[in-house]
C-alpha cells in the first residue's frame, strides 16, 4: 500500500501525518497539564509528574521532561496549544524557554506577562533564533565555563562557550584551513591549527641522528625530583626535550637536549607554558 503511492502522494501523506502528530501532541500536553494541576501522580504513588510519566506512561526521560516543560508553560499561556498544533512552537523551544526561566528566576522573578511575550516572540522562529532572542530578552549571563571530560580510551570531550568575535575568528580560520585539511570536522581542524602553531613556535625539530645520540647518552627519563634529587629513570614512552625551549632561543645542540618520559615532558611543557592547573615539581633551571 505505501509502496503504491507516487512521490507526490507520499509527500502529501507525510505532511498530513506531521499535522496530525502536532495536533495529537497538543492534546497530550493539555492532558499532562491537567494531570499536573490535579497532582494525579500522587494517586499512583509517585513523588512527581516526571516519575509518573516515565514509569507509569512509558515515556523516555527526555521526552517526559519536554512534555512537562510545555505543560507548565501552557498553564501560563493557554494559546500555547494552538501554537503547538500549528507547528509555530515546538517542544525544543518550550524546553529552551523553561530552562531560561528557571535560570533567570534564581536572581529575578520572571512575570507571567514576560513569559507570554517571549512565547509570542519566538513563534515561527528556528531553535537557534529562539535561543538568541531568549538570551537577549532575559539578559542571561553567557556561560563561559569550559567543560573537559577525559574518557577511558584517552579521548577527551569538551564544551566551550565562545564570544561572537571568538567564534567569527574561529570560523575564518576554519575556512582558510579547509583547503589544506579537506575537512570541516572540528577535531581535524583543531589538530591542524595546533600543529601549525607548534611548528611555528618551535621551529624544525632536531635531526634523527642527534635524537639517537641523546637517547644513547641518557637511556631513560632524566627528570630529577627537586626535593629528593631522585632520577625518574622511566624507559617507557620517551621523548626528546629541549632543556631551554626553542621559543626561548634554545638550540638543537645535544647539550640542550635530554630524554624525558611522556609524563614529565608534558608536565614541564605545561610549567614552561605557564599552565598552572597542576604542578608535579618546579621547572629545573634553564
Ligand atoms: Zn619521567
In sequence order, what are the helices and strands, one letter per element? Answer: HHHHHHHHEEHHHEEH
Largest sheet: 2 strands, antiparallel
Total helices: the number is 12
Low-pLDDT sequence parts: 277-286
Helical content class:
55-70%
Shape, please? elongated
Domains, number: 3
User: How many β-strands, per DSSP?
Assistant: 4
* C-alpha-based Rg, rounded: 29 Å
Class by helix and strand content? mainly alpha
Q: CA-to-CA gap between the ends? A: 79 Å
Strand content: 5-15%
Mean pLDDT: 88
Oligomer: single chain
Strand order of the largest sheet: 1-2
Bound molecules: zinc ion
Task: Describe this structure as you would to a colleague.
- The protein is mostly helical and 286 residues long.
- It has 3 domains: 12-138, no CATH class; 147-200, no CATH class; 208-272, no CATH class.
- 56% of the residues lie in helices and 6% in strands.
- It contains 12 helices and 4 strands.
- It has helices spanning 7-38, 40-43, 49-56, 61-74, 80-86, 91-104, 112-122, 127-138, 164-181, 186-202, 208-218, 262-272; strands spanning 147-150, 156-159, 238-242, 257-261.
- The protein has a two-stranded antiparallel sheet with strand order 1-2. Strands 3-4 form a two-stranded antiparallel sheet.
- A hairpin with a 5-residue loop joins strand 1 and strand 2 (156-159).
- Helix 9 (164-181) packs across helix 10 (186-202).
- The N and C termini lie far apart (79 Å).
- Bound molecules: zinc ion.
Question: What are the main properties of this structure?
Answer:
two-stranded antiparallel ribbon; mainly alpha; binds zinc ion; 3 domains; disordered C terminus
Amino acid at each position: 500500500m505505501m509502496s503504491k503511492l507516487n512521490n507526490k502522494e507520499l509527500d502529501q501523506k507525510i505532511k498530513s501525518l506531521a499535522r496530525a502528530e502536532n495536533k495529537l501532541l497538543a492534546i497530550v500536553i493539555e492532558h499532562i497539564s491537567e494531570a499536573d494541576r490535579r497532582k494525579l501522580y500522587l494517586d499512583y504513588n509517585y513523588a512527581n509528574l516526571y516519575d509518573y510519566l516515565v514509569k507509569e506512561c512509558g515515556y523516555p526521560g527526555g521526552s517526559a521532561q519536554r512534555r512537562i516543560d510545555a505543560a507548565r508553560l501552557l498553564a501560563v499561556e493557554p494559546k500555547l496549544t494552538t501554537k503547538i498544533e500549528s507547528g509555530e512552537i515546538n517542544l525544543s523551544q518550550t524546553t529552551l524557554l523553561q530552562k531560561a526561566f528557571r535560570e533567570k528566576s534564581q536572581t529575578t522573578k520572571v512575570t507571567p506577562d514576560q513569559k507570554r511575550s517571549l512565547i509570542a516572540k519566538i513563534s515561527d522562529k528556528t531553535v537557534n533564533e529562539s535561543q538568541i532572542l531568549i538570551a537577549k530578552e532575559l539578559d542571561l549571563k553567557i556561560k563561559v565555563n569550559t567543560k573537559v571530560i577525559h574518557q577511558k580510551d584517552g579521548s577527551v570531550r569538551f564544551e566551550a562557550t565562545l564570544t561572537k568575535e571568538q567564534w567569527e575568528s574561529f570560523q575564518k580560520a576554519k575556512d582558510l584551513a579547509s583547503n589544506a585539511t579537506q575537512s570541516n570536522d572540528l577535531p581535524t581542524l583543531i589538530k591542524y591549527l595546533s600543529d601549525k602553531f607548534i611548528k611555528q613556535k618551535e621551529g624544525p625539530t632536531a635531526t634523527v641522528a642527534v635524537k639517537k645520540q641523546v637517547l644513547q647518552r641518557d637511556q631513560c627519563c632524566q627528570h630529577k625530583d627537586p626535593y629528593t634529587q631522585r632520577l625518574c629513570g622511566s624507559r617507557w614512552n620517551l621523548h626528546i626535550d629541549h632543556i631551554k625551549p626553542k621559543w626561548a632561543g634554545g638550540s638543537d645542540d645535544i647539550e640542550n637536549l635530554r630524554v624525558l618520559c611522556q609524563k614529565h615532558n608534558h608536565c614541564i611543557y605545561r610549567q614552561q607554558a605557564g599552565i598552572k592547573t597542576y604542578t608535579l615539581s618546579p621547572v629545573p633551571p634553564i
